[in-house]
Amino acid sequence: MATRPPIIDTHIHLFDPSRQQGVPWPPKDNRIYRSTLPARYREVASPFGVAGAIAIECSPWLADNQWLLDTARTDKIIVGVIGDLEPGTPDFREQVRHFAKDPLFRGIRYGNLWGRSLREKISDSSFIADLEFLAEANLVLDAANPDPALVNAVVRLSDRVPDLTVVLDHLPGMQMPQDRAAREACQSDLATLGSRPRVVAKISGFVRVVNGQVREDLAFYKERLDLVWSTFGPDRCFYGSDWPNSEQWASYSQVFQLADSFISNRDPGTIDKFYRSNAEAAYRLNTRHVTKLK
Prior knowledge:
Elements: E1 7-12, H1 38-45, E2 50-56, H2 63-72, E3 78-83, H3 92-99, E4 105-111, H4 118-121, H5 125-136, E5 140-144, H6 148-160, E6 166-168, H7 180-194, E7 199-203, E8 209-210, E9 213-214, H8 222-232, E10 237-239, H9 252-263, H10 268-282
Parallel strand pairs: 1-2, 2-3, 3-4, 4-5, 5-6, 6-7, 7-10
Antiparallel strand pairs: 8-9
């Protein structure tokens, strides 16, 4: 097996239900409802060679953008933050300017989350203008929880804002339509996105439980993984664990080993891209954000 580089995990969540105001997610009856902070993540992930992580918002509360940035600074393992701001609202640009003063702030997440719909907002000129502003600020849009409608919306978005970097979260976990025409339409949209260098994909969110057991055989996932890989190629795919959300189904070890089994037989340069340099390029991480990965 090839030697891995220091790994950047591009998708984790941080939250603390013990705060006075609580958290909007996860709910109290969820098995992951406990304090989930950088030190705990380091303990879970560092044995696998993870040296940096990007914390993705899991709250629509404006104040939690600052909480996430403040929490990220408590441990250098957090090398970037994706916040939650709403394009098309009056204060969006001021909010972006404010949070982007912190070099850890790398962009926002928008998609099938918090009752929002990217598809419905594409025709809103103020929404598009704000995403143009985001692109000009060298910040990214993480597209949350893809389905065929979201994939089509990203095609339309990239038509209108071609300079915006869009990260498709959890793409290998997307269910393709059963209807033949709808499936072919989604495949066509994916092929279009594959031709657009500003659209990239996370190999994340794909682990499944079948009959009460985690499927740990790569063959079970290979068709979906191969589709994403063949669409976006070795320069535009990278690793994300979705921890601790993933712990509802599988351990960090199980998630990592599946991703690693998919990538580990490739050449060292491709492995480095998957685990580190593609994420650095997409999120524009540099020495301000990564002092030294070790």
